[in-house]
Amino acid sequence: MMKKIVKIKGMTCEHCQKRVETALNKLPGVKADVNHKKDQAILSVKGAWNEEAVRNAVADAGYEVVSIDYKKGFLGR
């Protein structure tokens, strides 16, 4: 399983957070934890990674992906 940090522009409240989280959790193999205060989603991805699907899901919810980074664990791994 890999982890990704998705920076998202435009979320201002818990309703926004829920919209994005619902959209991302509909993607196959994706478990999203969205935080509107940090303007980000942390994704746990099982299986194939599809960046375009993530960007489209966020856009369809009405927001914009600013960046996607690999989440490093303990000791930078």
Please name the CATH architecture: 2-Layer Sandwich
Please state the CA-atom Rg, rounded to the nearest Å.
12 Å
Order of neighbouring strands in the sheet with most strands: 2-3-1-4
Mean pLDDT: 92
Number of separate structural domains:
1
| Count of individual helical segments | 2
Gross geometry? globular
Explained architecture:
With 77 residues, this protein is an alpha+beta fold. The protein has a single domain, classed as 2-Layer Sandwich (Alpha-Beta Plaits), CATH 3.30.70. The protein is 29% helix and 35% strand. The chain is built from two helices and four strands, in the order βαββαβ. The chain has a four-stranded antiparallel beta sheet with strand order 2-3-1-4. Strand 2 and strand 3 form a beta hairpin. The longest helix has 12 residues. The two termini are 13 Å apart.
List keywords for this structure.
77 residues, alpha+beta, Alpha-Beta Plaits
Write the layout of secondary structure elements.
Layout: E1 2-9, H1 14-25, E2 30-35, E3 40-45, H2 51-60, E4 64-70
Antiparallel strand pairs: 1-3, 1-4, 2-3
Concise account of the structure shown:
This protein has 77 residues and is an alpha+beta fold. It has helices spanning 14-25, 51-60; strands at 2-9, 30-35, 40-45, 64-70. Strand 2 (30-35) and strand 3 form a beta hairpin.
